[in-house]
Write a structure and sequence with these properties.
This is tRNA (guanine-N(7)-)-methyltransferase. The chain is an alpha/beta fold and 233 residues long. It has one domain: 3-Layer(aba) Sandwich (Rossmann fold), CATH 3.40.50.150. Helices cover 36% and strands 20% of the residues. Strand 2, helix 5 and strand 3 form a beta-alpha-beta unit. The longest helix has 14 residues. The radius of gyration is 17 Å and the shape is globular. The relative contact order is 0.14. The site of S-adenosylmethionine has 21 residues, from helix 6 and helix 9.
Length: 233
């Protein structure tokens, strides 16, 4: 997106590229064979133009707790969490098709059956989830948008955070990992305003954390991870 992009285009486009490197043949197979059965129904505008709330029990076929990962990248944290917590259903959102294809390969390899995938904008999913339907949410290394004039595109702004707060259960945990000091600043300011209490923050990761691809790159480049935990009021 350029600086001249009109504001009306931001809803659809704030996450930048959707396609990257050419998909490997195996990845094309994962997308055509596996994605349809993993994606929750009623999330896209085409599927649900009236934006009626979906039934969360329909996602995994039972009333297990549902967790949400926003922008899973290559899916390593998502698959790790699914394997570690088989009794939970985790829904991952990622508009970048190469990331979705990587995740599908990892799902095949790990054999986990408690994941669902929305291959698109997390906001579309949050919009159709009922109130208080999510028991935990992860925002790992959200796009930093380093330029000041782009800060309003960051996920940690009131529009996105209020949608997230609405779908989270009282007491539910919300985790944010970032390597950008100004993103930490904005997170600590904005997230509490949207209805969350700060539980903890610092340089020590959660006990069940799995370092993501983006984090590995950040570490190689000398940036310092920061982990922040909130609880929905
Ligand atoms: C910096 S990457 C981090 C990826 C991964 N979480 C990791 O730690 O390696 C940020 C990711 O967020 C995704 N993203 C950006 N906006 C999004 C949105 N509105 N909904 C879902 N994912 C989004 C991007 O496509 C990208 O893959």
């Amino acid at each position: 997106m350029t600086d001249d992009t009109p504001p009306s285009a931001e809803w659809r486009n704030f996450y930048g590229r959707i396609h990257g490197k050419t998909l490997r043949p195996a990845q094309k197979v994962y997308l055509s064979e596996d994605l349809a059965s993993l994606r929750p129904a009623g999330v896209t505008r085409e599927d649900n133009p009236a934006r009626d709330p979906i039934d969360p029990a329909g996602i995994f076929g039972d009333d297990r707790p549902i967790w949400l990962e926003i922008g899973f990248g290559g899916g390593e944290h998502l698959v790790h969490m699914a394997a570690r917590y088989p009794e939970i259903g985790i829904v991952g959102c990622e508009p970048f098709v190469n990331g979705v294809a990587m995740l599908l390969g990892k799902i095949r390899q790990a054999g986990v059956t408690n994941l669902a995938v929305h291959p698109g904008d997390a906001r579309d999913l949050m919009e159709v989830l009922p109130d208080a339907s999510v028991a935990k949410a992860f925002l790992n290394y959200p796009d930093p948008w380093p330029k000041r004039r782009h800060h309003r595109r960051r996920f940690v702004t009131q529009d996105h955070l209020r949608s997230l707060a609405r779908v989270m259960q009282p007491g539910a945990e919300f985790r944010v990992a970032t390597d950008i000091p100004d993103y930490v600043r904005q997170t600590l300011k904005e997230v509490p305003q949207a209805g969350f209490d700060l539980v903890g923050e610092g340089g020590v990761a959660w006990g069940d954390w799995l370092s993501t691809r983006y984090e590995q790159k950040a570490l190689r480049e000398g940036r310092v991870p920061h982990y922040v935990t909130f609880r929905r009021r």
